[in-house]
Specification:
The protein is α+β, with helices and mostly antiparallel strands. 24% of the residues lie in helices and 30% in strands. Strands 12, 13, 14, 15, 16 and 17 form a six-stranded antiparallel sheet that branches. It has a four-stranded antiparallel sheet with strand order 2-3-5-4. β2 (10-12) and β3 (15-19) form a beta hairpin.
Length: 339
C-alpha cells in the first residue's frame, strides 16, 4: 500500500535542494545504495550532493533532469552552488548521468520532480511504501483503470450531459467547512468552483474600475465539444526563507479585499482571500494526483510552475466535466472526480 508524503524543498544560497531520502523515495531506490553512487561520483570529482548536519542533500539542477538525460552527451560544465558551510562546489548533473548506472538513469527519466505549494511551503510529493509483515503476501491486487481510457475509478455509471454516479468509498474528499464560500465535497469540483469564483471576482473588479488597467490573471474555458475545462492562470507570489531553509510562499491578493473576499469555513483550506484559495486548492489537487498508485497511472491534469525569481506561480489545468439540465432549463457544469 502507498500513501502520500510531502517532503520539504530547501533553498541553499539560492539553489533548490532535497534530502537524499526524499530523492530515494522519488526514484524508488534505497537511499543507502544511492549514497554509495554519490560517493563514487565524488571520488571522480563529480558533485551533485553535499552533507550537512548528518544529512545528505541533493542539489536539483536548473535544467529538468529528463532533458539532461536525453542530451547526456552534451556536457555544459555544471553549475556553481554554495553549501551551508560556505564552500563553493560545481554541481555537474551532465557528468553524473554519464557515470550513473543505466537503471538509475531510467528511473530518473521517468521521475517527475514536481514541486508544489502546501500550507504556504514548497514541498515535493513522494510516495511511501507501507511495509507488510514478511509472513503475509497479498494474493489479489485491485485493478486500476487508467484515466486516459476515459474511465474513472470512483465512477459507477455515467452518461455525458445527463448524470454521473460515484462509489462514495472511492471518491476524493474535500471539506468545504461550515458556512464557507465553497460547497463542493470533491477536490476537482472544489478547484473548478474556486476558478469560477475568482473569474467572477476579476470581472467585478474590472467592471467597477473602467479607468484602471484590467486584471485578467485567470482564464477559464469550458468546451462542450471536448468535455473539458481548461484553466490558465498566473498568480503573483511573495516568498520568504524560513529558519529551517524551507521556502514559504504566499499568493499576493492582486484584486484587493473588496473583490477577493473568501471564507474558508475552517475546512481543508486555510486561505483568507480568493487568490490564495485558488493557489492552495490547485496545490491540493496536484498533490492528490501524485497519491494515485501505481505511479505510471498518475494523472497529470494540473501543472504548477513556481518561479521564485519572477515572483509568480503559473497554473495550467484541463479537467473532465459533465453537465445536467434543470427543469427550468438551467445548465449546470460539474467537474468529474477523476482521482
Amino acid at each position: 500500500m502507498r500513501v502520500l508524503e510531502l517532503d520539504n524543498v530547501f533553498v541553499v544560497n539560492g539553489r533548490l535542494a532535497i534530502k537524499l531520502i526524499t530523492f530515494a523515495k522519488l526514484l524508488h531506490y534505497s537511499d543507502i545504495y544511492l549514497l554509495q553512487l554519490i560517493k563514487k561520483l565524488l571520488k571522480k570529482g563529480i558533485k551533485i550532493a553535499f552533507k550537512w548536519k548528518k544529512n545528505w542533500y541533493i542539489f536539483l539542477p536548473t535544467t529538468p533532469i529528463k532533458s539532461i538525460i536525453q542530451n547526456k552527451s552534451n556536457s555544459d560544465g555544471g553549475e556553481v552552488a554554495i553549501t551551508p558551510s560556505g564552500n563553493s562546489i560545481n554541481t555537474n548533473w551532465d557528468a553524473a548521468v554519464n557515470e550513473l548506472p543505466l537503471a538509475v538513469n531510467t528511473a530518473l527519466g521517468r521521475t517527475n520532480f514536481t514541486i508544489t505549494v502546501i500550507n504556504n511551503r514548497l514541498v515535493i510529493p513522494t510516495p511511501s511504501s507501507v511495509t507488510l509483515s514478511s509472513t503475509l503476501i497479498p494474493k489479489n491486487g485491485t485493478q486500476f483503470i487508467p484515466p486516459n481510457l476515459g474511465l474513472f475509478p470512483a465512477m459507477t455509471d455515467y452518461k455525458y450531459g445527463y448524470y454521473i454516479y460515484y462509489d462514495e468509498n472511492k471518491m476524493s474528499t474535500f471539506d468545504p467547512g461550515t458556512a464557507g464560500s465553497l460547497k463542493s465535497t470533491q477536490i476537482p469540483q472544489a478547484f473548478f468552483e474556486v476558478c469560477r469564483a475568482l473569474d467572477a471576482a476579476e470581472n467585478s473588479r474590472n467592471g467597477a474600475n473602467p479607468g484602471l488597467p484590467p486584471r485578467r490573471n485567470l482564464s477559464t474555458t469550458v468546451s462542450f465539444d471536448t468535455g473539458t475545462i481548461a484553466v490558465a492562470a498566473t498568480v503573483p507570489i511573495v516568498t520568504s526563507i524560513q529558519s529551517d531553509g524551507t521556502i514559504k510562499i504566499v499568493a499576493s491578493d492582486y484584486l484587493g479585499s473588496t473583490y477577493s473576499a473568501f471564507t474558508n469555513g475552517s475546512g481543508d483550506l486555510t486561505s483568507t482571500n480568493m487568490v490564495a484559495a485558488f493557489l492552495e486548492i490547485a496545490s491540493l489537487l496536484s498533490a492528490s494526483e501524485k497519491a494515485v498508485t501505481p505511479a505510471e497511472n498518475q494523472p497529470n491534469n494540473i501543472q504548477i510552475q513556481v518561479d521564485v525569481e519572477a515572483g509568480s506561480a503559473v497554473v495550467s489545468a484541463n479537467l473532465p466535466f459533465t453537465t445536467a439540465s434543470a427543469t427550468n432549463g438551467d445548465v449546470t457544469i460539474q467537474a468529474i472526480d477523476y482521482l
